[in-house]
Amino acid sequence: MRLVRSRRDLAQALTKLDGPQGIGLVPTMGFFHAGHVSLMERAVKDGASVLSVFVNPLQFGEGEDYERYPRDPDRDLRIAEEAGIDLVYMPPAADVFPPDFSTSVTVADLSALYCGHFRPGHFEGVTTVLARLFGLIKPQRAYFGQKDYQQSAIVRRMVTDLALAIDIEVLPTIREDSGLAMSSRNVYLTEAQRQAAPFFHQALSDTERDMLAGERDGAKLLAKLERRLKKIPGFKPQYWALADAKNLQPKATAVEGDVLLAAGHFGATRLIDNCVLGESAKSGPGAIKRP
Ligand code: AMP
Q1: Measured from the CB, is residue 133 less than 6 Å from ligand 1?
Q2: Span 194-245, pLDDT tens digits
Q3: Which candidate, 258, 246, 249, 170, places its Cα nearest to that of 207?
Q4: CB-ligand 1 contact for 183 (6 Å cutoff)
Q5: What is the DSSP string of 155-191?
Q6: Domains, the chain, with CATH or none
Q7: Span from the CA of 207 to the centroid of ligand 1 (angstroms)
């Protein structure tokens, strides 16, 4: 595995890497868990693999956790090497965004919904850094996690709108045994919050079960989801929504394939999760205790 920290070294290393299948990029902010590893392993399986590790200042709002975002570059490099990654780009902020950088990329509409409503500028930060990374690395494939459902829908839109020749692969959410979606931010949780956090996923999958049992009325499903989220000890739900899987528009009537999206806080820690209706029935949900 080769490690580079500058655009110049990156460009040089890329010339040696490009193979017949092209390059697969896994963009991350580091502090790896099994969710990141699943993306890396898939990229490695598909061909030459590049991993970017960059805590992107543009996607953090004022008062958010940019400074205290967890970082452990040495551990990340060990994990990347074990996963078989070919090349790691781990730059300082000024290498990605030099002082004269003046472009931003916005996917209108989609970026204003749900998480975007509560984190203005967040998705613009994400799409801008991805456009930059796509330009620097020129991947044929890029890998994202379904855990950040809205993000992956926005990235697909950007790639289509800008006619970028990149296949966007969205891989399933990796969860702890408790059902809690793995997230770098889970380290912020106190012991008590950790005990309660699995009920977030449980609330979504219980609502999915209601839908599969025949309840198709979106308002009723969301009222049930709201009640469940508000019962979770120490949790402050921020939004809960039923959306079309592709364009993310709110739905009044649920069909299989629609997605439940939700976010909320345990103290200062913000968690997001989602559930594609009908998906857990296919993969078999784990048994999780109720609050
Ligand atoms: P991050 O480092 O949080 O920006 O995440 C980098 C990539 O890993 C994004 O595409 C995320 O969607 C993905 N990811 C984060 N958590 C998970 C998870 N639990 N399962 C699968 N993918 C994930």
Answers
A1: no
A2: 999 999 999 999 999 999 999 999 999 999 999 999 999 999 999 999 999 9
A3: 258
A4: yes
A5: HHHHHHHTT---EEEEEPPPB-TTSPBP-GGGGG--H
A6: 2-171 (3.40.50.620), 184-283 (3.30.1300.10)
A7: 24
